[in-house]
């Protein structure tokens, strides 16, 4: 299967976009008209540049507001189209996307729309070209895929087919199931985009908030399966309008896009062997605004059956008629799609079993601070690296590596973390197939071989086997790791992500390590709104909480820049808190007064929490989180200790603003 | 009238917020609960801090999900309220905002809601406190101000009144007119916020996109007039949730907020002497989503008439009844509100008559580039400043000042511009009253006295009289200003605004100089989305186009940083283009091919445009813009020449991406 990307997905001028698409391994592009218009290259030069880069131009788009208009306007529109056909010929592309009209001049008349599109298809065919008609979700009269398909059927023109865009289809209420029944060969083009569920105007949703497949909430593997069932064999093409991607490094966005398509292809599951005419089990339609009062799913499959084909009328005829639809339900093909030739499969994601270690880069200023903090948390300095200025600190199954071999002094940072996998080579092979190649760790002879992949925030992610003896690189200090303060294991890592790469990071962990996305949380913090989305394995042995500011922070920035933290799990936070020799971050008394009012907790329990600086959260199912924070060390990092009760599966996000304000207060009071 | 601001309006911890509010001259605050919860200060300490700063705590907010719930929950809610009353007593505030419930546990029963609120008011009264009940626009059962008023009337409790929030009122379909008929004394609190018209979920609209009055689309002078007509004499309090304000310098945001309130007060017009029960002439209600199927305006005024007061039942009674409403239309008060004691009036904004000069700061690198450019545009170097390294360049009524007295070398910048006013002292007095005090220009004895105010982007804005002889500070060079290339005057300035201060800038020019906001335009540029909003005087003698990136730009930034430009007007752009000795910015051939298709222009006309590098735009009324751009000079600035035809009143925004791509192409090809 060929992979394509619309130029509108990435930032820059056309040159930037083509270079990025080619470098990421795409086979072709959709050329967005504006990118052509602002380019100093002629269409013929663009064609040559694409050929040099190994890219085909698979689609020219969009051609707007064409059909079902008064004669005078139709004439002007056809003349406009002829000019575009000329450009397309120079570009060497044969398919143009015509999206359903949003013009006030358009009338609600399927016969007229079909007649006009037939006229246009005649003109296109004369140039050896074809028309891919797409129902915009906010089209004036045609806004659903089944409606566009009825019009294409009425026209019955060989040079007129459908363009299906997953956003336009899945953002509306008409279920996608009957797509599998579209006449083979009549889907001319396929555009893929994901999106989060948002309650907003569908046009704004589409223009600003699309995401690459796997980054949003749409079931794209199922959608793609339906389209392939209809015999579609054109490119899988991404068309994503996203405010952030529009202004971030195009080279990185294109890699993110390719990773997304690779994962999607891998996810292609066999279709269920049930009639495809049943409504989709879960439709996001109710989330799209404005929602129609009643949205009855189409119950009749729309197929271009042999019987209806015989009834086709001349495209230019004014007396176009609807083809009678077959009443027979269409069933899925017998051959699972995953076995379809051309579908590339990824190495499966091996099961992860936990966090092996977390490495901090420290310098002469932050190193001592971190050591004091670890000691206060009950860690023991158990090992010293054979050849490098690197220390191992342990408590229970928690292992912290302090690496002083930094070349540039600066705030402390989580430079690397290691997870354990049941099959590290397979994990690394999967990463490689997802455009995240592993690089070998710098090492000396005799040292354990560890390979790392680089996460979007620059952190190295090592994948080790539980049996790997990487600790043998460390000479024992003679200090044993004791029970300390009862810290058992790493509960999660908290990593602030670069603004431009938050969704990229989510997809990276999701695809490369096979972690699931947990629900996105947004909250108001003292210096602006924050977004948090964690990834975790199903058994919750590995959790990474990714956070980002909702707006890139600017000149007024009293907050810690890009904070990072490690949260350790304990079975009894109150006992752990009593065992700490490090004072936890002070929590305001006002917090506890509010907590009591909010959750109806007993005064005794609140007093105990308050005594130890412990924060509290409860989820709707009654799961509870007790957690405490430390101050910030080394200018950027801090620690958390968590006790999860009754299956609490969040991260205490409502308490994050309390932590931020308290950390700032401490900075102000300890530096003055 | 007292002026207050909700702590949620500005960024930071409580200390930052209180300091900012006091410095900007506010009399009081609304304390948002989260700001209290994260504060290390006890309520008593907060009270003292506010007193020290001269601030009163006018409202504690919000108290959520209280009313119309099952008995068990009511009990818990009352207990929760008791805890908050305790906190309020320590804070020394007596009014709490109770917003209509969004809880699934709440039932749609006005009698029950009134009974519960009466119970709560009883409890509040026991503490000497009162309840301000507010209809959230997305309340589960109570979402309009008139509904909240009916419930407050049913309760008939002296310690229960309304909180009116302009956003919640004006974002919904119920007209605000009948607010003037609310029983005097029953509006306990007034919250003011503006907003742009947006088609989105009302909750998201409210939580992310509110603006200060005068920055959005709501008619707040009229709204405030209605509230004052009902006898409201509490504080005018701003409550603005805005993603950008939440993360920008609180000191500046608070000044912006104060400027907004000052302007709003000044705008208080006499109410029309017509019955207030007629529907509002223009209601933004249809823009709020989700919109109900039919939104009939309330036709019966809701007043607490003496007759209905006699029918009040005991608040605790289970048999609450609705008070019969008076059928008499309420008319506006006889005394114009503007004459109301306590309303502060601004010096009126004198009429502006044009741009006097534009000053560029240049250094040894950018100075020569700018001189070459001005010469190429037909400018003559006519004057040299008597005491400073400052040159005057002229053509027609266009005057450019090149100031080489820069202390820090860097890209060229528009450091100042001057407009002519019919009464400069009055203009400056108005600016002073709007927290934008003028600072005297640094000058030597005998030089013209010019005073400037500082715009939010740091540009100095001089206000001069058309008769001012500021040019006498310049010694003639002997070169006369000739017809040049036919540039007549400054059409507009184009100033990129700092991301955090775009709305502040709009309000600054609108309030201080009395310029009107023109419609906001958004467009996709090569490096991300852009927003543009111009301000102009009614006769279009002064225009400033303010632009900003929709997202703050980050690490990938090949664009010119914060570009600025001056656009000059000509009566005949083709003749001007022929007279230029500076080659204009090259425009791609693809642009002209698309132009022909888009507008149906004749081939001859397009060929002429193309020959001279002229871009073209047309508005829906047939107004036309012909304009051309220069390359970027001095790393940051460029020029534009415009010819407006048939009343074209925009700025050719669709062509901005063409310019940006062409300017980048030129940078790449001339630096390589």
Automatic annotation (TrEMBL), chains A, B:
Its EC number is 4.2.1.118. Residues 285-307 are annotated as: Disordered. InterPro entries: DSD, Glyas_Bleomycin-R_OHBP_Dase, IolE/XylAMocC-like, Xyl_isomerase-like_sf, Xyl_isomerase-like_TIM-brl. SUPFAM superfamilies: Glyoxalase/Bleomycin resistance protein/Dihydroxybiphenyl dioxygenase, Xylose isomerase-like. Keywords: Dioxygenase, Lyase, Metal-binding, Oxidoreductase, Pyruvate. GO terms for biological process: 3,4-dihydroxybenzoate biosynthetic process. This is 3-dehydroshikimate dehydratase. Pathway: Aromatic compound metabolism; 3,4-dihydroxybenzoate biosynthesis. Residues 285-302 have a biased composition (Low complexity). Pfam families: AP_endonuc_2. Its cofactor is a divalent metal cation. Residues 19-260 form the Xylose isomerase-like TIM barrel domain. One of its GO terms (molecular function) is metal ion binding. It catalyses: 3-dehydroshikimate = 3,4-dihydroxybenzoate + H2O. A divalent metal cation binds at residues 134, 165, 191, 239. Mg(2+) binds at residues 492, 565, 640. It comes from Actinoplanes campanulatus. Catalyzes the conversion of 3-dehydroshikimate to protocatechuate (3,4-dihydroxybenzoate), a common intermediate of quinate and shikimate degradation pathways. Belongs to the bacterial two-domain DSD family. It comes from the Bacteria.
């Amino acid at each position: 299967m060929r992979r394509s990307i619309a130029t509108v997905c990435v930032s820059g001028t056309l040159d930037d976009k083509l270079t990025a698409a080619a470098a990421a391994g795409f086979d072709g592009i959709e050329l967005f008209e504006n990118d052509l218009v602002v380019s100093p290259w002629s269409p013929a030069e663009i064609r040559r540049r694409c050929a040099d880069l190994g890219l085909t131009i698979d689609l020219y788009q969009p051609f707007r507001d064409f059909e079902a208009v008064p004669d005078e306007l139709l004439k002007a529109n056809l003349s406009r189209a002829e000019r575009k056909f000329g450009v397309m010929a120079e570009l060497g592309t044969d398919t143009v996307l015509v999206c359903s009209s949003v013009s006030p001049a358009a009338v609600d008349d399927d016969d007229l729309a079909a007649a006009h599109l037939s006229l246009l298809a005649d003109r296109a065919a004369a140039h050896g070209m074809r028309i891919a008609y797409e129902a915009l979700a906010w089209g004036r009269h045609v806004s659903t895929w089944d409606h566009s398909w009825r019009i294409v059927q009425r026209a019955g023109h060989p040079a007129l087919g459908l363009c299906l865009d997953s956003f336009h289809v899945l953002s509306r209420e008409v279920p996608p199931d009957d797509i599998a029944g579209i006449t083979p060969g009549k889907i001319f083009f396929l555009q893929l985009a994901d999106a989060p569920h948002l309650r907003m105007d569908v046009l704004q949703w589409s223009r600003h908030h699309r995401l690459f497949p796997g980054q949003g909430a749409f079931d794209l593997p199922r959608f793609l399966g339906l389209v392939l069932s209809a015999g579609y064999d054109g490119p899988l093409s991404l068309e994503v309008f996203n405010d952030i991607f529009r202004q971030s490094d195009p080279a990185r966005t294109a890699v993110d896009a390719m990773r997304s398509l690779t994962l999607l292809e891998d996810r292609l599951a066999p279709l269920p062997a049930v009639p495809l005419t049943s409504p989709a089990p879960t439709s996001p339609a109710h989330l799209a605004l404005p929602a129609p009062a009643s949205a009855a799913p189409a119950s009749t499959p729309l197929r271009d059956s042999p019987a209806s084909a015989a009834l086709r009328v001349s495209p230019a005829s004014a007396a176009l008629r609807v083809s009678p639809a077959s009443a027979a339900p269409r069933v899925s093909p017998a051959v699972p799609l995953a076995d379809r030739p051309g579908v590339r499969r990824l190495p499966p994601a091996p099961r992860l079993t936990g966090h092996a270690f977390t490495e901090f880069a420290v310098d002469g200023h932050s190193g001592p601070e971190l050591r004091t903090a670890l000691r206060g948390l009950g860690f023991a300095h158990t090992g010293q690296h054979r050849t490098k200025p690197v220390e191992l600190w342990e408590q229970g199954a928690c292992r912290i590596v302090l690496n002083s071999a930094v070349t540039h002094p600066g705030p402390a940072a989580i430079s690397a973390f290691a997870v354990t996998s049941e099959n590290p080579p397979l994990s690394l092979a999967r990463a490689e197939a997802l455009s995240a190649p592993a690089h070998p760790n710098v090492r000396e002879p005799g040292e354990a071989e560890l390979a790392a992949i680089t996460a979007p925030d620059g952190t190295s992610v090592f994948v080790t086997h539980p049996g790997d003896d990487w600790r043998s690189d460390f000479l024992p200090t003679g200090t044993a790791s004791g029970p300390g303060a009862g810290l058992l294991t790493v509960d999660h890592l908290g990593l602030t992500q670069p603004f431009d790469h938050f969704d990229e990071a989510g997809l990276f962990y999701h695809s490369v390590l096979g972690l699931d996305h947990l629900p996105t949380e947004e909250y108001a913090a003292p210096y602006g709104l924050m977004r948090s989305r964690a990834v975790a394995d199903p058994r919750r042995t590995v959790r990474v909480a990714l956070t980002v500011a909702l707006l890139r922070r600017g000149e007024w920035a009293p907050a810690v820049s890009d904070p990072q933290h490690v949260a350790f799990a304990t079975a009894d936070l109150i006992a752990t808190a009593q065992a700490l020799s490090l004072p936890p971050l002070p929590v305001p008394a006002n917090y506890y007064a509010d907590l009591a009012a909010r959750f109806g907790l007993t005064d005794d329990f609140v007093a105990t929490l308050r005594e130890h600086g412990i924060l509290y959260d409860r989820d709707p199912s009654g799961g509870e989180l007790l957690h405490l924070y430390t101050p910030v060390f080394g200018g950027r990092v801090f620690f958390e200790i968590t006790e999860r009760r009754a299956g609490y599966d969040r991260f205490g996000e409502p308490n994050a603003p309390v932590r931020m304000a308290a950390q700032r207060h401490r900075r102000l009071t300890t530096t003055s």
